[in-house]
Amino acid sequence: MIKYITETTDYLISKGFHKPEIGIILGTGLGQLIQEIEIIHEVSYNHIPYFPTATVEFHKGKLIYGNLEGKKVVVMQGRFHFYEGYSLQDVTYPVRIMEKLGIHTLLVSNAAGAINLNFKKGELMLIDDHINLQGNSPLAFKGVEHLGERFTDMSAPYDFDINSKFEEIAKANNITLHKGVYASVIGPQLETRAEYKMLKIIGADAVGMSTVPEIIVANHLKIKAAAVSVLTDECDPNQLKPININEILAMAGKAEPNMITLFKELIKTL
């Protein structure tokens, strides 16, 4: 993997990706942040050596380099998921590349279902902690110790100072920003009523199919990390209705302006 990482990094440097400070993974609900970036260079994933290719129809597939609020950023427009058939090493490979390019901070967005019924769809949740239910780890491979400490500490996977800034920004801009625990499952199927009940019992406030692998690798590489979820549906097992993906996407779009405000105002402070 070290050889692959070196070749990928050298390729992107040759394309002008020069010492970004902040990495951003645009999940559902933050796609329009691209409009706020002064784009210097962009490369399609399928042109980058050893990069996976996004297969989800509403996820784009570009790595973007540019200026945002006075900072150099490298942005994943579209992410990879375990449920697409990739290994967790594939899913998190871009995080390792962004670290080699020079980032010190990783910011992540995603769409999630609200397990905590005090949280409503269209609102945002700052991830304070997580539960990994994907049945695997992106660090579980031979030779991982050559890339960072094998037994990575996860006592505080989400940076306290960044989370505090997010909360201050939300308050100043009258944005509802809950704080809670995100459970990451494999997917792509949605949860059953019994599974939603279980998630509530074990302490989850929201559930999704991403983010945790990338956060684990960010901690492995000692990068500061933070993540925000768009709550796109309310997962009440006693009133569960068939899922409508178009409604989820519409709800993510409704929440997007608030998400963009949070990220832009935060980046100013980093």
From TrEMBL:
GO terms for molecular function: purine-nucleoside phosphorylase activity. Pfam families: PNP_UDP_1. Residues 21-268 form the Nucleoside phosphorylase domain. Keywords: Glycosyltransferase, Transferase. Belongs to the PNP/MTAP phosphorylase family. Its EC number is 2.4.2.1. It is an enzyme of class 2 (transferase). This is Purine nucleoside phosphorylase. Pathway: Purine metabolism; purine nucleoside salvage. The purine nucleoside phosphorylases catalyze the phosphorolytic breakdown of the N-glycosidic bond in the beta-(deoxy)ribonucleoside molecules, with the formation of the corresponding free purine bases and pentose-1-phosphate. It comes from the Bacteria.
